[in-house]
Structure prediction request, 210 residues.
Amino acid sequence: MFYNRLEAGYLLAAKLKKYRNEPGIVLAVPRGGVPVAYAVAKELGFPVEVILTKKIGHPTNKEYAIGAASLTGHFIIPHDNVNDEYIQHELTNIRTRLKEMHKKFMGDKEPENLRGKTVILVDDGIATGNTLLGTVNVLRKTGPGRIVIAVPVASEDAVEKLSREVDEVIAVLVPDVFYGVGGFYENFEQVTDEEVMFYLDKLKETGKTL
Prediction:
């Protein structure tokens, strides 16, 4: 049980020390992953950036993901009756929203070139892993040297699933009985945009944001 995301982040950072001397970057999944990523980046001396991706939903069921998109790339699982016109329309809408989030959290800075770097993807926990799978597939197209998923808590199923897709999955807790990410935190209040900015600004003060 963690007190809050910040405490969980410091405990997670202790498991990531072997990466300290590598050329790396921490990518925080907003919003809940940002306080965790703050602690990890601070301890490793890595810069941090907010990873912005959104799923691409099926035209007949928007909750069913057929892929994912970032500002610079996208990943699609081919489906019957999903044409390129629909995909391009969704990409335009998604990237409009992502640009708004990027402007809010990262200002005018362009997303960092990840080629050849150790990318540590940080969230506050993983239940199924399905959402992160899309993010990983988009990230892979940027040519990182290594992709590591790091979280305070994850289900056994999620660790098994994601371990097949990335170089390493690191979790502080992988409980036998998993009852939702929030169940492993005493304080699991929703992280606000203002809190995201607070942590990113604190890292800027130490020169650890990009």
